[in-house]
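Give me the fold.
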Amino acid sequence: EEGGDKRAPVQNGDVLENYSWTQTLEDVAVCIPLPDGTRGKACFVDISPTHLKAGLKGQDLVIDADLCSKVKPDDCAWTVEDGNKLCIELAKHNAQSWWKYLVIGDP
């Protein structure tokens, strides 16, 4: 990996240690790597207007923090893709703004 410790934004988001995220003006996509062969029923996702919890059931959550800005939980969804990625789509409440980070505490 070139560039040392400098991280370049990825599609207006970021790649962090335990997950990555991207955004458009309307929504935010979060991707959490999972062990190969993981099924949806093994995942836990809880989306409130201001807080996101996500990870595997029975393990420490990968994300459990307040979001950068409000989302519309009824318009959000999540899936397991390729048996090794938890993908969460968050619908922004204010659809014309860019988020500076995903959750409070992120760099």
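Strands lie at 14-15, 20-23, 27-33, 43-47, 51-56, 63-66, 77-81, 85-91.
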